[in-house]
Amino acid sequence: MKAILAAPLLFLRLLYQSVYLALGQIWANKTRSVLTTIGIIIGVASVTSVIAALTGLKAKVLSDFESLGTNKIFIIPHWPRTGRFKHFSWRLYRFHPQQFEGLLERCPSVSDYTLMTERTRTIRYGVRSIDGARVYGINPSWHTIENRSVTVGRPFSLNDEQNGWQVCLITPSVRDQLRLDRNCTGKRIVVGERSFRIVGVVDKRVESGMFGQMGASEEVFIPFPTAWKLWDPWVYAIACCRKPGLSEEAKAELRFFLRQTRRLEPGDPDTFRMEVIEEYLKTFNRVAMGITAVAGGVVGISLLVGGVGIMNIMLVSVSERTREIGLRKAVGARPSAILLQFLVEAVVLCLFGGLVGAGVGQMLTTMIAKIPHANLQMAHIPLWALGISFGFAAAVGVFFGMFPAVKAARLDPIEALRHE
Amino acid sequence: MSTKPDRIIIRLEKVTRIYKVGVESIHALDGIDLQLRRNEYVAVMGPSGSGKSTLMNILGCLDRCTGGTYFLDGRDTTRLGAGGLARIRNTQIGFVFQSFELLGRSSALKNVEMPLIYSREGWWSRRKRAKKMLERVGLGDRIKHRPNQLSGGEKQRVAIARAMVCGPSILLADEPTGNLDSKTSEGILALFDQLHSEGQTIILVTHEESVARHASRIIRMTDGRIFSDMSFEQDRANRASLNGRFGEMSK
Ligand SMILES: Nc1ncnc2c1ncn2[C@@H]1O[C@H](COP(=O)(O)OP(=O)(O)OP(=O)(O)O)[C@@H](O)[C@H]1O
Ligand SMILES: [Mg+2]
């Protein structure tokens, strides 16, 4: 029992003794120690702050994606340029509303869907007009899918849809630019060449830093059947999964359903495609991890440079202290004690550099987060980055400290004592 | 220590030390046979280059002999590895150098503490023992001083305290007074005398008869060999007669 305990205890004693000596040495050479570790400080600071910035960027993009709705599936007609569809005109493979009839019964993973179509039109009210407003044809289910609240008036109902009325919802910015009253329901505005009665005001879309400029904020919504009748347009659809994570099932069901309603033969390619934000998210996550790893690695090279600096100073220190090493050996220091003393000194220097570097990195990160318009508000140093850069700093210390330490441990005591 | 005072503590048998410089080999020690008992006080003398320092380094386990065997306290040191020798240097041997070899950045106390770091000694008892030792060499009031704040004699006292702090079986001193004036030297030698009277085994190297006078046994070397090894009184008589004959011849 005693024998089993002896070895680790001896090692602990040796380690304690080395730390004691190394700290004493570092303290005795304060200025030099700080200067030596600058390389490591810069290395760790840059690694942590670069990773923090990328983490912030990623978090921002993710939250923006999420504001778009991760459980949404976009269904878009797609023209396969091969097979028998090669010479089809777009009319033949675009979506028809009747192809979606009965979708909800046949696709249990889909909670709702809306057909969509959009145009750019000029809108007029009296003498005022807005050029380039976006006009959407939507089903009433759009309200539950997009989750944009109607602040004035009412949302679309099945009535609007079935009767093909010329009614519309507008965004606050349309209302303000046309100088309409706050409660503007019942007013008629001209969309394109036709007059539409306003039934409500719908909130502007959630501003997301990344995709903020994706569309005009002047939006007008009209019932889909009305749009279909007026424009004979290009149509896409947005479906919504019942639960996040169900997108695979939902896609399979939708594909099966649409292939039937679009009368595709078994060998035919799909004439539509589906895009899930969630999938983009996964891809983006992978790409972001890759970029972070590569950037961290590239910046990590500066840590290696810092390590070379440590090795350099340790070598100087060993040759400067040759007599001291000789003396220590003469009074009974084992080679292992000398080795550990110098190794621990290098590692302690590196860890000290790592600590200061992490502090500097945190400061840089705080500054980065405050850069205006850079979308880096969410920049923070993740714990794993701290762990990695500390571990790496220690490894650098061991790796680059080993050579000088071995050199010191191998010194012959008499030779060392004769050293000038 | 229940060992008898006349017990043999050092035994050298045909010890050689050969340095190779290029193709030449220098026989710094050329077959040394030597026995030392506990509490002896030995002075090693001889002309420069006769191998005194080489002998001291081997006795102090700082160096290994290239031939022969060295028994320290009955143990064959030639069979020991680097770790074993380090342990012996730590526990059995105190070495005093001509040039003091103190750590310039550390206080007298820290310098004396140093060997204890490498033995199984805790922080507190380390300080206590180092302090006691400094008091024993008469430097109780210089504990916090750094080497550059100490006189030559005081520095050597610190070095002696460091050599003695682990309670070594032998104290080795290679020209301990070589860098000191004669008055300071007397003080250091008085300290050695005191340690000897307290039972310490001492071997010192010196060029000066006045220093050797303190020892009870004189070993004279030339060219790596011992040519005379006798008690101080015998040695003096011997030298007197030699001088006498030399005087007649020169007439
Ligand atoms: N490292 C070495 N390499 C080669 N030769 C050496 C070495 N050390 C000592 N010698 C040689 O060994 C011989 C003995 O040297 P040593 O230092 O023991 O003499 P010493 O008696 O102590 O002389 P001094 O009184 O001048 O100190 C000398 O001839 C010296 O040149
Ligand atoms: Mg010498």
List the main descriptive attributes of the protein structure presented here:
heterodimer; A: 420 residues; alpha+beta; 6-stranded mixed β-barrel; 14 helices; 56% helix; elongated; B: 251 residues; alpha/beta; Rossmann fold; 2 domains; 6-stranded mixed sheet; 4-stranded antiparallel sheet; 37% helix; 27% strand; globular; binds adenosine-5'-triphosphate; binds magnesium ion
SSE layout and pairings?
The complex is a heterodimer of chains A (420) and B (251).
Chain A: H1 2-28, H2 30-68, E1 72-77, H3 90-93, H4 103-106, E2 110-125, E3 128-138, H5 142-146, E4 150-153, H6 158-163, E5 167-170, H7 172-177, E6 188-191, E7 194-202, E8 219-223, H8 224-231, E9 236-241, H9 247-261, E10 272-276, H10 277-320, H11 322-330, H12 335-369, H13 383-410, H14 413-418
Parallel strand pairs in A: 3-8, 5-7
Antiparallel strand pairs in A: 1-9, 1-10, 2-3, 2-6, 2-9, 4-7, 5-8, 6-7
Chain B: E1 8-21, E2 24-37, E3 41-45, H1 52-59, E4 67-72, E5 75-76, H2 82-91, E6 93-96, H3 108-117, H4 123-136, H5 152-164, E7 170-174, H6 182-197, E8 201-205, H7 209-212, E9 217-222, E10 225-231, H8 232-250
Parallel strand pairs in B: 3-8, 3-9, 6-7, 7-8
Antiparallel strand pairs in B: 1-2, 1-4, 4-5, 9-10
Helix pairs in contact in B: 3-4, 3-5, 4-5, 5-6
The complex binds adenosine-5'-triphosphate and magnesium ion (MG).
